[in-house]
Amino acid sequence: MSVRPWRDIYRRKSRQIMVGNVPVGGDAPITVQTMTNTLTSDPCATINQIRTAEEAGVDIVRVSCPDEDSTAAMPTICREANVPIVADIHFHYKRALEAADAGAACLRINPGNIGSADRVREVIRAAKANGCSMRIGVNAGSLEKHLLEKYGEPCPEALVESALEHARILEDNDFHDFKISVKASDVFLAVAAYQGLADATDYPLHLGITEAGGLRGGTVKSAIGIGSLLWAGIGDTIRVSLSAEPVEEVKAGFEILKSLGLRHRGVRIVSCPSCARQAFPVIKTVEVLEERLSHIHTPMSLSIIGCVVNGPGEARETDIGLTGGGQGNHMVYLSGVTDHKITDDKLVDHIVDLVEEKAAQLEAAAAQDTH
Question: Domain IspG TIM-barrel, which positions (predicted)?
């Protein structure tokens, strides 16, 4: 039994599929995805963007394949990428065939939208031959006409029905390696649709609030929608859709997972908003530390608190802590225990050194445990 049962998240039981070498669903870690916004027909630009996302820890990257020039670039992109590539096809079944042959690990496609049953069977044959999984991607903005006529407007029931209709097509052709998303830009609609879908099927679910907005607004909106679903145990892979660089989506995705204790990567900084009691410039210090510690992948925690009101309490809960003190004498805590004082001079450099040393110790201990 957990010591803190109010922190427990009981994940929905889902079947597991593979996206390349990355498991999705079941008891696999919840994966973080993003999508490139370069021209896929420009493999160099696309690969460079994928590299940046990889450095931030992305698990899966989706690229759009709207034309033959894009799928012609896919062999190079898939070969150079260190993570599985999902080819976004939409209505073009020939692009699906080309992308599968080019090395895509997954096809984002709605089988009911690509035409005849023969076309569906062709795509399934190509997917099976190349070891591709699929993602059924239902969107409130592009629901089928018969569902809009039936329900009058996009609603949770319509999104779920659309998803299950597409799933049935794949199942009828003995294809089961797929995950499903039911995205909407309205948080309430998306959350209700995912809740209904989670009750209706055991396929893995890809979470997202589509067209969420810019960096700040989109992150908040996604955190509310995706976070509430994850808290309820729903979701196997996520994408934070932002009008921003893809790497920002990856960072936001990991922050959501870290805040719920579902994935641990890099330094989790606990910091105060600052006030007149602050003994050093908290906001600027945290801003610089976030940038300078972005290369740390080892999970650990750091508290940066401007004064002694909450500082000691927060420091007891983190690997490294800094609490502001009078006359520029600030207290440093290691593993929750007071250790030494530092002055304003080179404060940031000192904290960076401590974090890097702690990360090296944790990595060495982990390596020792594996032998």
Answer: 14-253
